[in-house]
Amino acid sequence: MNYQIIDIPKITDPRGNLAVIEGDSIPFETKRVYYLYDVPSDSHRGGHAHRQCQSLLIALSGSFTVRLYDGKNTKSVLLNKPDRGLLIPTMLWRELEDFSSGAVCLSIASHLYDESDYIRDLKEFELAASSQSKT
Ligand code: TYD
User: Fold this and answer.
1) Closest Cα to atom 3 of ligand 1
2) Is 48 a catalytic residue?
3) Which residues line ligand 1 (CB under 6 A)?
4) Are 58 and 106 in contact (CB under 8 A)?
5) Torsion 126-128-131-135 (CA) sign
6) What is the pLDDT of residue 29?
7) pLDDT at residue number 70
8) Contact, 126 vs 78, CB < 8 A?
9) Whole-model pTM above 0.85?
10) Which of 33, 34, 54, 88 for a ligand 1 pocket mutation test, highest count of atoms within 8 Å of Cβ?
């Protein structure tokens, strides 16, 4: 599965750490930033894949689990450090769950919001993923 874990460059300091994302830290130009917060612990977010948009997810605070599915295999990734990002490429189904109290999920995206870029139906995703893997 072609997701990536990215170590975000940081400047540690007894006054508090500073992490910075710039230049080539991520393999796309940032078009949009959004974040999830006040997420109830029994809530599920995500539940979709993107045709064009890539995202980098970071647990700015607290923790949550990202369940990835490529149409064949699943993989769970725990995000619990503000200097570690999960790069999700196109055509990967994601579910976000098990949010800790106070968790904040930052998402840095390669495209502006466009509902037509979403695949929100799992069966449709599985069909698209299997036809893509044949080409
Ligand atoms: P949704 O895709 O369900 O969020 P998540 O994948 O994080 O669970 O989006 C929730 C609503 O917010 C939906 O109506 C679309 C809207 N939305 C925007 O308007 N702009 C955005 O950048 C995002 C991510 C969502």
Assistant:
1) 46
2) yes
3) 32, 34, 36, 45-46, 48, 113
4) yes
5) negative
6) 95
7) 97
8) no
9) yes
10) 34
Mean pLDDT value across residues 109-133: 96
Q: Helix or strand or coil: residue 124?
A: helix
Cα of 56 from ligand 1 centre, angstroms:
15
Q: Point out which residues pair with 55 in neighbouring strands.
A: 88, 109
CA distances from 93 to 11, 20, 82, 128 (A): 33, 27, 23, 11
- Mind listing the pLDDT tens digit for each residue in 69-87? 999 999 999 999 999 999 9
CA-113 nearest atom, ligand 1: 22
Alpha helices in 18-121 (DSSP H): none
Question: How far, in Å, is the centroid of ligand 1 from the Cα of 106?
Answer: 13
Tokens, residue 29:
């130009």
pLDDT tens profile 18-51: 999 999 889 999 999 999 999 999 999 999 999 9
How much is the average pLDDT of 108-125? 98
Please answer whether residues 61 and 100 qualify as being in contact, where contact means their C-beta atoms are separated by less than 8 angstroms: no
Residue nearest to atom 2 of ligand 1 (CA): 46
